[in-house]
């Protein structure tokens, strides 16, 4: 069925005609007058308006619910991002502060020197403690909170680099600089006094080491309190460290010999010399010539018998001597 609406005019009166055109059969027409049409139209319009408004209201309410959830999620997301951002900013600020401190520290050589002094003061104290304990094989490195064990020679080279750092620092004349210079000269004389200088030129061969051995002359096992450094010629013998000559003389066993005290409980002994050029009471520098290698005393060939004593106890000199 098709429905058609249209306005028709009959005898001058306005009315509405609904014309039904069935697919089968004749056309039917329903005629509605104007006033009823108007009323119906208004009602329909109101109904449509009400339905639309209701639908709209419902959809708005529904949409608001969705929006509210979305909004809540967005708020949570923003809050999370805000928290992250705050953390990031706090972190950045801390880094900035740290960097600023580092930069300030680096810009003042005084601060560097103070740190260096604290460092090598700790190293120095460690080493002094180690002497007293007569345990120079390894030094417990505690000054930097590390449990790493390091050899005496490693510790020595670290002390030297710290000294270089302090020497290179630009200092103004005040309490700090005088403190630093005092420590610097302390450390310098400390390092000079240590018996670390290899006492023979061009000969680093140890023919007989420290410890128990079959004695080459007495032919029985006994403690060898030093090391034997051999050479075919009669090279110069040098003081292993700065110090005071305690003895310079001759005995049956040692032949011509020299003993030097280096302080801090250290002594060094040089035996079988062909000659010596120092006397008891002399002050010698590290590396200063004190005599010539020889074959005096109970010796089977030209060599230097060299000992280091720490607090009166013979100790293996290879722990201290630096080959050159
Ligand atoms: Zn020997």
Describe, in plain words, how this protein is organized in 3D.
The chain is of the alpha+beta class. It has 3 domains: 2-64, no CATH class; 109-193, no CATH class; 206-319, Glucose Permease (Domain IIA) (Distorted Sandwich), CATH 2.70.70.10. Helices cover 41% and strands 29% of the residues. The chain is built from 4 helices and 18 strands. The chain has helices at residues 34-107, 109-132, 152-168, 175-193, and strands at residues 2-10, 13-21, 28-33, 138-140, 149-151, 206-208, 211-214, 221-224, 227-230, 236-238, 243-251, 255-263, 266-273, 275-276, 283-284, 289-292, 303-310, 313-315. The strands form 5 sheets. Strands 6, 9, 11, 12, 13, 15, 17 and 18 form an 8-stranded antiparallel β-sheet that branches. A 3-stranded antiparallel β-sheet has the order 1-2-3. A hairpin with a 2-residue loop joins β17 (303-310) and β18. α2 (109-132) runs parallel beside α4. The chain is rod-shaped and about 160 Å long. Residues 1-12 and 131-147 have low confidence and may be disordered. Residues 208, 224, 226, 228, 305 line the site of zinc ion.
Outline the fold blueprint:
Blueprint: E1 2-10, E2 13-21, E3 28-33, H1 34-107, H2 109-132, E4 138-140, E5 149-151, H3 152-168, H4 175-193, E6 206-208, E7 211-214, E8 221-224, E9 227-230, E10 236-238, E11 243-251, E12 255-263, E13 266-273, E14 275-276, E15 283-284, E16 289-292, E17 303-310, E18 313-315
Antiparallel strand pairs: 1-2, 2-3, 4-5, 6-9, 7-8, 9-17, 10-16, 11-12, 11-15, 12-13, 13-17, 14-16, 17-18
Helix pairs in contact: 2-3, 2-4, 3-4
Bound molecules: zinc ion.
